[in-house]
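Checklist before submission:
- one chain only
- standard amino acids only
- sequence pasted in full

Submission:
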Amino acid sequence: MASSSLNKNIALLTKLESYIELYQKLNETISGETIGWHIAHSCQVINTITNAIVHSDASKAKPKFSFLYHLIMLTNHIPRGKVKAPNIVIPKNTITKTEIVEEIELAKANLQTLASTHQNKYFTHPIFGDLDVPKTLKFFTVHTNHHLKIIQDI
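Returned file contents:
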């Protein structure tokens, strides 16, 4: 894996960390969720997908061209309010500061795990289809940036 992808994602997690003290802050004109929710969700996406990738069988991947994936990755922009996150990556409403810190630490460890994972391992995104490790890392960058922008607006 290119170390630049790893470094970008670690830098984004560090930015998320800088907002931990504001985890209870809510601005419903921006989002119906708190800053802590957005931090935890971003980390849960990394953690859940890394687990799926590690346990995948690279020989079973069925990559397909996704215009939407390429458009989002090219523009580095996910439109707000257009897609609902799967339940598996929706944090509980009563998430604590300690749980948020744990999610960030696990996400950092999982990024390191991906650094040594076969690049053809994959996970199946509900919209984009099968994404290998390099495409997943790009998705993590765009997705985390999306939530950082929301956090900054809050």
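Reviewer check: The mean pLDDT is 94.
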